[in-house]
Amino acid sequence: MSTCPVDPPPEENSFSAIFKNRNFRLLWTSQVFGQSAQNAILFVQMVMVEGLTRSSGLVGLMVLFYNLPSILFSLLSGVVIDRFRKKSILLFCNISRIFVVAAFIFFRHYARGVGLLTVVYILTFILSTIGQLSDPAESAMVPLLVPPHQLLTANSAFHLLFNVAQVLGLLFLAPLALKLGGVDGAFAAISLTYLITALLLWPISTHEPQPDPRLVHNMWQNLWDELKAGWQFIIAEKAVLVAICQHALITMLTMIIAVLAPGFAARVLGMQPTDAIYIFFSAGLGMFLVTMWTGHLGHRFRRDILVAVGLLITGLALLGFTIIAWNSEATASTIPKPSQQVILQVIAMALMLGAGGTLAIVAAQTIVQERSPIAIRGRVITAEFLFANVSGLLPMLIISGLADFIGIPTVLMGLTTLIIVSALFSLRVSLKPKRKQSHVDSG
Known about the structure:
By secondary structure, the chain is mostly helical. The protein has 2 domains: about 10-220, Growth Hormone, Chain: A, CATH 1.20.1250; about 225-430, Up-down Bundle (Growth Hormone, Chain: A), CATH 1.20.1250.20. The protein has helices at about 15-20, 20-55, 55-70, 75-85, 85-110, 115-145, 150-200, 215, 225-235, 240-270, 275-295, 305-330, 340-370, 375-405, 410-430. It is globular, with a radius of gyration of 23 Å.
């Protein structure tokens, strides 16, 4: 790897350094509460709909309503984020969530049957729509709070936050609140969590330019031009376009692996489908370890090379899974269960998979933030989120279905080839001599 021309003192890029920044610390802490609540609310909603209908199909319909706004409003939210202060947007979103979540309690007592179910779907849609503003606004706010040389470390800290919030929301907040207070008690706890999030956001001070009132007033009249400006910048700025594609590639792979993991454990290794938890846990450990490394030492290396190396590690991990799958299928008739050595190999490959994917995503997202002008950063980031999510859905459905016909090892070999070729191409592009460029002003 080649290093950046000028390295700031290491102590300025450590986790301890960025958490000394009061504004960043408040944002990070607020999002621990906010993201935990966001993870908990969907679980509680599924429990409520299951209790009301005893229908997996109607639970699935609620999940569809939850995901629909990401397709409908993602690009529009980018225009809004670029026209209003990020802190104001985050405050609006979290205060709104307090009342929307509390509305679940109200309608549970005053609506029945189909009417209640309809209200649940509507409130779910509203909550998810609010999230389309909140999540990219938070990402766009990070470069306003930390200097450019600390941005990679800051993104590493937020990537770690998302993992922590999943554990807190799904394993503690939702189950504990449901056990102690039932569905109403869980909604009340989540509403309170959003209140804490808003209170932590309130004292944050940002050096964000005041939006031009004329731009805010004319936002809807010039909506199409506003949307085009974000995409035109992405297409014109090669580094940003490549980073967004790399982010989307890892997101697609994550979706596919999540679907294939139970089948890999059961049909390839001869284990129980629930034993896929070994893969997920090991991948999570890899994510944690590389996040810590990136936060402490990642600033010494160019972002594009970090992405390429992350892709290469991911590809090598997939190659390891492919070899394990071929060997296990070849011996399946004589060895019903995998040996301890094979299990250790699976754990090692999963750890590499989590580490490589996380390194690639954190570095790619940092490139997008650094190179996007503050005036259109919201549109660029929402385009990144939309492309990453949408581009993964169809391949996930096709490839997961394909695995039933041609076998998981063959599918893994195809994914391995795709990722390693992408990694080598990314490495080749990143090692080309570049004209000296200055970082985009972070505001």
